[in-house]
Every structure is written in structure tokens, then in C-alpha cells.
Amino acid sequence: MNEKLELLNNALAEKLGEKILRSTVSRGELTVEVSAADYLPVAYALRDEPDLRFEQLVDLTGLDYSTFSGQDYPSRFAVAVHLLSVSNNQRLRLRVHADDDSFPMLDSVCQVWPSANWFEREAFDLFGIVFGGHPDLRRILTDYGFVGYPFRKDFPVTGYVEMRYDQEQGRVVYQSVTIEPRENTPRIVRDENYGNAGRG
After folding, report:
1. From CA 30, how far away is CA 80, in angstroms rounded?
2. pTM for the model
3. How confident is the model at residue 163 (pLDDT cuts 50, 70, 90)?
4. Would residue 60 count as lying in a domain?
5. Is residue 24 a part of any domain in this protein?
6. Phi and psi dihedrals of 140, rounded to 5?
7. 96 - beta bridge partners?
8. Residue 173 forms beta bridges with which residues?
9. Is there a domain that residue 35 lies in?
């Protein structure tokens, strides 16, 4: 950890104390993890504390750790928030895990950083993470009738439903997926005799 990150880590430890569950450095940035219960108070502290002053939310994304084989995490779904302090020229990654895998829910941070609005809608649309207190939580990328959450690891690659234009009805219709399963392994791997034709 370089000196700048160490100073930031110390400032975070001083201001947030036991609210920080874990602190690591990855890809040249500090990552702190907090509980779902502390997420909103920590967000306000990160924005308002003079030594921190993370005024800008750059990105927020959902995470699905269901097939993650690295570090052990407390739950399947999480959110990672990338913050920028223009005042202090610092970056920070904040990660929080939802408590309930069957209905992942976290507080919305739109009231702290308004730029979180569409990012939270995207995380809801693609991962099914619900943000309590969001001013307009609805799908943003998929169709209104879309079933499921396409960025979850257990969502089928082909999806569940496809749509097509029906000439007779003069409108778009939805139907079950009709894509035939196909072999995606290159022939040189699946055919033992590939390339040996004509050799004698």
C-alpha cells in the first residue's frame, strides 16, 4: 500500500471505525466493505467528512458472487460503488452485500449522490437488487414484460422468452425461446480425426 492510500485508509478507520468490515487494495485503489445496515450512514460520512469529501459517485454496479471461487463472501449479491474526491484527489471503492439472497435489498444512495439514480435502476434491472427509497425504481434496459434478471449467473444465455413480429397479427408477439442448442466446441477439439483425411 503506497503512502497516499495508507493515509486514506487511516482517515477512513478514524472516521468510520468498526463500520468498516474489511479493507483491501486492488488495482491501485482502496476497497472498503460495510454492512447493509451501515451503508447509508457511511455514504453520508464519505461525502460530508472534511478529511474524506467524496463528492462524486462515478459508478455503481451490481455483483453476483454465486460462482465466485476466490474470497468467501457473506452473501450472493453485492453492490460496488466507485467514488471520487475532487477536493482531495482520491478514489475509493465501497462494497456492500445485501443480507437476503432471495430478495436482495439495499438503501438507495440517490439522496447522497444523485448520479446513483440510473446506476441503481440498472443494478435492479440486470441483477434484481432492490434499492429502498429510490425515487423511480423501474427497469431501464430490458423490456417492461421481461422475465428474470439477465446478469445473474444462473440466467440462461438464451433467455426464457423471445419476441418476433407476426405478419398476420400485425404486431410483436412473445413466445418461448426456439433457439436450438448447438455445439460451440471447435471442430479441431471435438473431432478426433479432423485434419487427417487423405493421410494414409
Report:
1. 12
2. 0.80
3. confident
4. yes
5. yes
6. -125, -25
7. 34, 79
8. 164
9. yes
What's the pLDDT score for residue 185? 67
Would you give the end-to-end CA distance of the chain in angstroms?
63
How far apart are alpha carbons 92 and 38 in whole angstroms? 17
Do the beta carbons of residue 55 and residue 48 sit within 8 Å?
no
Q: What percentage of residues in the chain have a pLDDT greater than 70?
A: 90
Residue 58 is part of a domain; what is its CATH number? 3.30.460.80
- The secondary structure of 59-96 as a DSSP string is EEEEEE-TT--SS--SSSEEEEEEEEETTTTEEEEEEE
* Number of domains comprising the chain: 1
pLDDT digits (tens, 9 = 90+) for 22-57: 999 988 899 999 999 999 999 999 999 999 999 999
More confident residue, 154 or 96: 96
Q: Is residue 176 part of a domain?
A: no
Domain range holding 118? 3-146
